Each structure stands twice: as structure tokens, then as C-alpha cells.
Amino acid sequence: xxxxxxxxxxxxxxxxxxxxxxxxxxxxxxxxxxxxxxxxxxxxxxxxxxxxxxxxxxxxxxxxxxxxxxxxxxxxxxxxxxxxxxxxxxxxxxxxxxxxxxxxxxxxxxxxxxxxxxxxxxxxxxxxxxxxxxxxxxxxxxxxxxxxxxxxxxxxxxxxxxxxxxxxxxxxxxxxxxxxxxxxxxxxxxxxxxxxxxxxxxxxxxxxxxxxxxxxxxxxxxxxxxxxxxxxxxxxxxxxxxxxxxxxxxxxxxxxxxxxxxxxxxxxxxxxxxxxxxxxxxxxxxxxxxxxxxxxxxxxxxxxxxxxxxxxxxxxxxxxxxxxxxxxxxxxxxxxxxxxxxxxxxxxxxxxxxxx
Amino acid sequence: xxxxxxxxxxxxxxxxxxxxxxxxxxxxxxxxxxxxxxxxxxxxxxxxxxxxxxxxxxxxxxxxxxxxxxxxxxxxxxxxxxxxxxxxxxxxxxxxxxxxxxxxxxxxxxxxxxxxxxxxxxxxxxxxxxxxxxxxxxxxxxxxxxxxxxxxxxxxxxxxxxxxxxxxxxxxxxxxxxxxxxxxxxxxxxxxxxxxxxxxxxxxxxxxxxxxxxxxxxxxxxxxxxxxxxxxxxxxxxxxxxxxxxxxxxxxxxxxxxxxxxxxxxxxxxxxxxxxxxxxxxxxxxxxxxxxxxxxxxxxxxxxxxxxxxxxxxxxxxxxxxxxxxxxxxxxxxxxxxxxxxxxxxxxxxxxxxxx
Lengths: 356, 356
Ligand SMILES: CC(C)[C@H](C(=O)O)[C@@H](O)C(=O)O
Ligand SMILES: CC(C)[C@H](C(=O)O)[C@@H](O)C(=O)O
What we know:
Two copies of one chain form a homodimer. By secondary structure, chain A is an alpha/beta fold. Chain A has helices at 14-32, 45-51, 57-65, 88-98, 122-125, 163-178, 194-206, 220-229, 241-252, 293-305, 310-325, 343-355; strands at residues 2-10, 35-40, 68-73, 103-109, 129-135, 139-149, 154-162, 183-188, 214-219, 236-239, 262-266, 272-276, 328-329, 339-340. Helices cover 40% and strands 24% of the residues of chain A. In chain A, the strands form three sheets. Chain A has a ten-stranded mixed beta sheet, with helices on both faces. A two-stranded antiparallel ribbon of chain A has the order 6-7. The first copy, chain A, has a two-stranded parallel ribbon with strand order 13-14. In chain A, helix 1 packs parallel to helix 12. The longest helix of chain A has 19 residues, at 14-32. In chain A, 56% of the residues are buried. The model of chain A has no long low-confidence stretch (mean pLDDT 97). At the A-B interface, strand 6, strand 7, helix 7, helix 8 and helix 9 of A face strand 6, strand 7, helix 7, helix 8 and helix 9 of B. Strand 7 (154-162) of chain A pairs antiparallel with strand 7 of chain B. One 3-isopropylmalic acid (IPM) sits between chains A (89, 92-93, 245) and B (191-192, 221). Chains A, B: Its main location: cytoplasm. Chains A, B: NAD(+) binds at residues 76-89, 279-291. Chains A, B: It is an enzyme of class 1 (oxidoreductase). Chains A, B: Keywords: Amino-acid biosynthesis, Branched-chain amino acid biosynthesis, Cytoplasm, Leucine biosynthesis, Magnesium, Manganese, Metal-binding, NAD, Oxidoreductase.
């Protein structure tokens, strides 16, 4: 198959990890007789520097024409004092909205060779394998008004949702659960928010379409506790944008392998933007220290969810798994008895295992 | 000194734990020659049952006349299907607003005898001692509009703040930090929310009044991670209402002693409502199994913050500490080699140690 992929390296270590993922995809294409073509575009702080905006029109246009998008990371201290519309994150928020990427999927899964690095006790974290399905284009992130009032003495932000926006993300969660352990935990704050009460109604309606999936409602404060005390109780968690932002970052540190976690942001048609959960790590940028595995695993999600290449996705995931089992690790990971390597060496290890 | 205390037992185990705290306060009054008088009023689900409202006017009136309020817990499955205005939590939300209890203080501190029950590894949790200062009467909890629109096809909630509401809670946090480790972590989502950008400005202004306190801004998603990976880095965390709800519950499970955690909700004048962080635990209500220590420690906070009886507060806290060290524990705690006791026995243990 022929696929055209837009790379959005972004800032900091972004270009190092997207290059690594590109190399892996190229090696895989050769193995499986696919043709993957690549094109790089600017986003984030580097786009502000070059084009005066964190999301140039040509970046959006290129993404629209592509089969899928692979992003590195955005942000850095250089742009922290910029006004809101010139901040790197604004590029990310805008591309999500422009491409209608409403469904953010964040799998959190432990790697047996890395679980020792978890802040949680072994018996608490073992057997956890969860997927957070976060609504990504609504809620407090995009609601209006969002403004100062009364001469700057007060301020409002708006948490707004269409019922249809809730329905489509909740459906996505049930579909994902049907392919997994068949349990959905819907997270809201229905004892306080009207939007959460509507959310709960939508979940109650949609669940009838998935009779073999069980569902549980949980308040966001309780979910923040249970992720820590009993992460293994979860299968799929579905929630609105801001709660999802907080809970998915909370969940990302549980397994001790934040540098390993991929994510997918998808629209209705299966098109998606894939990116590592980790940030742009400006402190180690340009030093070949970055862990490329989250970006490589994001590419695997792309293969699976957008290209429907399940076998290829599994080949990449197994190669990553095996590289870890052989003791290869970048500096962010501590693998007793393993061999510390740089970004390029890690990428080569994955590629050679992929071909094996 | 003479002090009049209103007890709001509420639902579930609420009446068991407030009775326990009352006994402790009575024993303490005798020791220190104070006169504490008590009066019980209804709130929550039991108030709905008796009065048709979760916060009867006479409850509010009694609280206004009291020197302080001690609450048990509200809520339970019996009222879960009630409409919003007849839910137990509405009583809690209304009393906070009625009494202008804008400052919620939640200390999270480990007990050496209980740290083994933490879901976190010993080396991660040890040396953590933090205080969450949560804004309690603004933000998404009380903003209007909060309503369905367009024939129920859409919904909005409103995150609204006055600058003055931000100033007073941020000041409270700096004051608390000045008496502790002199560090404030201000949590917001300034890369997305206008209200968070105003919040950050307010923190930057207020900090000049407290030159010996250091301050750091942290995004809420990063804070949700760091509470788990490095809780000992925090001293005082200050944040708005909804972020505070989530982060304080997240923090409450870190030390493995949720059943031990007290909280204070205070107004401008030092008046306060004190309550355990744990819920109404309907599953064990009426069985004398409830752990009364969080309610007793909430009474200690009342002594300290509203009655300015520091010595008395410390006497209570030491007695609790010692009871644990002697191995006394209720069924929610697992103390190897300790003696499991019921609510009444635990209360008596604390009282006899308090008199010793
Ligand atoms: C950078 C920021 C705006 C973004 C978000 O809050 O969505 C990030 O935290 C994420 O989760 O992808
Ligand atoms: C019961 C609920 C409305 C309340 C809140 O969200 O404030 C509770 O979770 C709390 O933290 O005291």
C-alpha cells in the first residue's frame, strides 16, 4: 500500500524522535512491501520563529492531504512568555480543532522490564492495562466566552458541549472496550456540573448499543484516587477534555515508563495525528539522548488505527518489547544490567529486531 | 474559654465520627478548663428525608451563630437518583457558599505507622508533608450560566472568578507557607484558560507581599503527575476549586491513610467548618467500624485555626499519634502486630492518652 505521512517534528527533542519513527516506518515498508512517503512541516515554537504563527496554513493544508500525521512535541521556555496566540501549544490546540481530532486515545500499559521504575508498589501496578479515551475538541478548551470582564476585575471560561460531541466520543470508548476487556468507566462530576449530568445521560443511552460492554460511572475526584490505589480495575476510561487531560497525565506516570507512551488523536473517518505523550524536553534536545520509543509506538498506533495494518503494528510493538528485554534503554530509563544507548542506537536496535 | 460548636453529622458514618470527636473535645475541655457546648443539626440526605431539603434554614442559622462547625459526611446511594437540588452534596455546596467558606485546607501527612499501607513505594512517599489550599466557593462549582440549551442539544457550565476571590485564597496559601516550609506551588492551566492566566498574574502580584516564600507555577496535568512521582517536592499547593477537588483527592490516597485526613473550610474571619476528607461509607454505617481519627483530627484543626488553641490542638494530635503507635487501629487500617478496635474503643484510647 502507498501512504503519505506528514511529520510535524515541532520543538526540542521532537525532531529526533520523529526521525527515529520515520526510519522505523521506512524499514517496515521495505519488509512488507509498502510505500510510505514523508513530508515535514512546522508547528509550535519553531513555527512561531519561522512563520510568526504556531500553526502555518501550509501545515494544516499538508495535514489535510496526508493519510496520517506524526507529531513530535511542542513547547519550550523560549516561548513561555509569548502571548496566548503565539504559544507553541496553541499550534497543537488549533490543529486538533482544524482536523476535527475529537478522539484522543492514550493506552497505558506496563513493560515488564520497566515496572520496577514505577512509583507504585509492584503489587499495585501489576496487571494494569488501561486505555484513556479523552474528548479533545470541546469543553473548557474551546468554549466561549473566555475573557476578562468588568475592567479586568473578573474572568470567565466556558465549558460547552453539544450532545452530539458527547455521543461520538462515548461511542468510540464503547467500541474500543468491545475489543478489549469490555468495561467502560465513564468519568464526570455529575454531582456538580450540568454538562456532566448530560454526559451521564448520553452514556446511559449509548450503552444500550453495546450490550456486552459493562459500564460504571465514577466521579472525577474518585477516579483520581482509584487510578493510584487500584489501576488494574480499569479497562477503558472515557471522559471530557479537561478531566481527560489531568487523568491521562496522572495515569502516564503509573507504570514508570512515561518515555514509552504513545497517543492517537482521531477524527470520524479514522484519520489521525499520532504523538508521544512526553513533552519536548528542551534540556536534552540535540544531544541524542531522547527516548524514541514513544514516537515509534505512536507510529505503531498509526499503522493499526489509520492504515489498518495490524500485523505491521504488532511487528513494531514486538520489536520494541524485545529491544527492552535485551536490555537496550535510553538514559531516561534505568534497566539494571542493561545497556544504555543513544537515540540512534535504540532506533537501530528496534529496526534490526523488526527485520529478524 | 467558652465555645459553642454546631455538629452536622450528616449521613452514613457521619454521626458515629462526629460523636467520637465530640467526646474527645469534651475530655479536652475538662483537661484545659474550657467550656464547649454542642448542638446537632441536619444536613445532606438525612435532612432531605426529614425536611425536604439538604440544607434547612435552621441549620444555616445555627451555624452562623456558632463559634465553629464540625461536619461528618454527606451522601449515600439512597439519594443518588434525586434531582440536583435534593442531593446530599447540594447541602454541602450550599453551606460553603452561605457561610463564605472560600478557603479549603487539606493537609496530607503520613503517619509512620501507616506508611506501609501507601500504594507508593516507601522511598517515594517518605518525607512528604503537604498542604493543599483549594478555593472553595468559586469557579465551575458556582458559575452561571450552568444550563441546557437549544432544546437540550447542548449544555454549558461556567468557570467564573472575581480577581478578589483569587487574591484572598492566594494570600491564604502564602500565609500558610510562611508558617511551614515557605514554598508555594500554584497550579493552573494557563496554557489554555483565561481564568488561569489571571490566576497566574494574581500569584505574581501577591508574592511580593511574602518575600521569604518561594513560588512556582505548575500546570494541573504536570501537578497530577508530580504528586505521584515526587510528592515530597511540595509544601503548599494552591489552586482553584475544580483542580483542587481532583488534586486533593489524588493526594489523599498517597500516604495510605485516607481514613486519617482532616480538612478545614474557612471564611475571612477565621470561622470554619471542619470535616474528615473521607466519605459517608454507607456500607459500614451503624456497625461501630468507622475510623473516628479523621473527625478527631478535624476537631484538632478547629482548635488550632478557629479557637487559636495551639496547645490543645497538639495534645489531640499527639494522642492520635500515640494511639497509632500503640497499635490501635480500626478495620480500615492494617497495622501488623496491632490491635483492631471499634470506633468507641479507638475514641477511648485517644481520650485516655490525651489525659495522660
Ligand atoms: C499542551 C497542552 C495544551 C495539551 C493539552 O492540555 O491538551 C497537553 O497537555 C496534552 O495533553 O496534549
Ligand atoms: C461532594 C462534592 C460536591 C465535594 C466537592 O466536589 O467539593 C467533595 O468531593 C469535596 O471535595 O468536598
